[in-house]
Amino acid sequence: MADRKELLQRRRYRTRLNLKKLAKTPKPRLSVFRSNFHIYAQLIDDQQGLTLASASSLDKELRGQVKKGWDVAAAELVGKVIAEKAEKIGVKVVLFDRGPYIYHGRIKALATGARAGGLEF
């Protein structure tokens, strides 16, 4: 029987392999990391190897609005902030990289916030 760490690793590789197939297009990747207490999002240009923008529940601009960094409301705000930053640098269409995380809860809320902010994926 596979342990939890191995299952996460398998899911991560499966998601990333699908992204590599799609990454031939010059779209940046919206990568999401979820810890127990916070959520982070980055816009990454894989062709140049650069991080274009980032947002997290730890950002100074969100500290007054976020009571807890681990709830769905915080994730949705992070999604809106990353969408605003993407709009400032001229990015409208991205690839969503959820990593090993299942698309529900905080990951889904971040995606909803990013879509509400104007990102397309």
Mind explaining what this structure looks like?
There is one protein chain. With 121 residues, the protein is of the alpha+beta class. It has a single domain, classed as Nucleotidyltransferase, domain 5, CATH 3.30.420.100. 42% of the residues lie in helices and 19% in strands. It contains four helices and four strands; from the N terminus they run αβββααβα. It has a four-stranded mixed sheet with strand order 3-2-1-4. The chain is globular. The mean pLDDT is 89.
The largest sheet is: 4 strands, mixed
How many helical elements?
4
Mean of residue pLDDT?
89
Q: What are the segments in which pLDDT stays under 50 over at least 5 consecutive residues?
A: none
CATH architecture: 2-Layer Sandwich
The percent of residues in helical segments reads 40-55%
Helix and strand sequence: HEEEHHEH
Main-sheet strand order equals 3-2-1-4
Overall number of domains: 1
**CATH domain class name:** Alpha Beta
Structural shape: globular
Q: How big is the Rg? A: 14 Å
Amino- and carboxy-terminal Cα gap: 35 Å
Total number of strands: 4
Structural class: alpha+beta
Looking at the structure, the CATH topology is Nucleotidyltransferase, domain 5
User: What percentage of the residues does DSSP assign to strands (E)?
Assistant: 15-25%
